[in-house]
Protein: AraC family transcriptional regulator
Amino acid sequence: MNSKLSSAHASSRIERDCEELTAIVERFALTEGVHPTAWGPLSFFRADSTSAPVCALYEPGLGLALQGAKQILLGQETFVHEPARYLVTSVDVPVSAQVLRATPEEPCLCLTFRFDLQRIREFLPEIRPVRAAATPSRGIALSPLDGDLLDPLLRLARLLDKPQDLRMLGPLLERELIYRLLTGEQGARLAQIAIAGSQGHQVSRAIRWLREYFDQPLRIEDLAAQVNMSTSSLHHHFRAMTAMSPLQYQKQLRLQEARKLLLSECCDVATAAHRVGYESPSQFSREYSRQFGAPPLRDVNRLRMEGVESVA
Structure:
């Protein structure tokens, strides 16, 4: 009986804290889109209606859905992000995301906390329960939300109206949040990319290179040598984490960047193709159409008609 009462009390507390955090997010995110906050790694998202799938690059971080729901597609895997579950992204992954549930009366509200991987590395020697998985796992995962993780997030959000308190207490709350993540269900997922020399860390180094030099020619042998892996090992573990090969990953980055260029800078298709690394504008247009469902100009015109200013 006592365990049932304790469980009911914990559930009631989580529900109450989620309601308070939802109210804070809604107060700061008065319009649709992503809203930065006074604490750099923390941002809020709001959508007042459902959306078509949008390509985006998810960076390492924690995501918490508070109201409504989003669907995230990584390769052929689908993740439905809704209240009572938190999402952990351990590496940069190109995804397709869309808002599934949202109305002006009950908008989709989400919170994102971006990870500092160096800070995570500093914690690892002190946290004995965490053991990195022998084989790298997917770069995205969902877990049930618990009160220990929710508590530092709520306390951090409460301080957004108190700059002095935020400056002094924010670093402590961030440490607590990282500790809760590393000792929680997704701790091993984070450890795998933070431990120097691990296969997950080597793959994360390869991903960083691809992000920085996505417009450069790619030789898998050179990339594998750079991160001290064999080509077959790089292929295997890269696909395990990102659901795609390094070449497919590079293509995703190129096409997403080209879409941003076409939308924000109004350059022509040939120029956009060249700037992201394509030698053939016709090949670029074919791959763009397969990725986004329409040729470049038609796709960008549709986005402008829908009032989309950014697809990041």
